[in-house]
């Protein structure tokens, strides 16, 4: 999974347009993109979108945060549509995942869904307090599939006047990004880079995505359909990377009892093998 495109939960038209693209996942949003008095309608529309299944995309639903009191209502409304996963905003840590997982267990049973099939992705850096919970995701639930970092709500939580300058995030946001990446690696789930909000700056989007991939992120959240192809391409391995990965895997396959090998004049070991498998999508 490389690209996760947000779609407003009250806009079937935008959902249809998004479904024509090549995003790996669509996130139907019941949170920020839907005003309070339209949320009941958006729940019904979201269920209809889930039931339509217009393409091969994975379908996630971003519910409202636990502190709103609306999360369970959202889940009860959309689970009959059998979403592939739930995106939980403003997550504070592993306890929040366990709470949502408990609700999903019951709702899956009520909807005839295989127990444990619905995954959870957490937006894990949207409040100052959430940063201190990043270490609690490891082992919290087998449903946990990914951790996404976000800067927009974090800015409000910090009382900051500016997030970035010249296309570069300021220190607090870089810290949140890096800690989220490390938390996802520790929990062995997908690290997901934040949305790029300068919609028409496609060169900046490509640069930010390539930097995310360089550092270890496996996917990026998106807010506009025209970003999808750029992000997918940026996360694709280069020909040189693919060739290197194939050579590393072949070398270890020929020497299954070796922990270290010499390849093209360089020493390689099992971390190189894991990196090679990740490049080729085998992890």
Automatic annotation (TrEMBL):
What is a single molecular function from GO for this protein? lyase activity
The HpcH/HpaI aldolase/citrate lyase domain sits at: 2-225
Cofactor(s) essential for the protein: Mg(2+)
Tell whether Cytoplasm is among the UniProt keywords: no
Keyword hit for Lyase:
yes
What Pfam families does this protein map onto?
A: HpcH_HpaI
- What keywords are annotated for this sequence in UniProt? Lyase, Magnesium, Metal-binding
Q: Which family does it belong to?
A: Belongs to the HpcH/HpaI aldolase family.
Q: What is this protein called?
A: CoA ester lyase
User: What's the source species for this entry?
Assistant: Bradyrhizobium zhengyangense
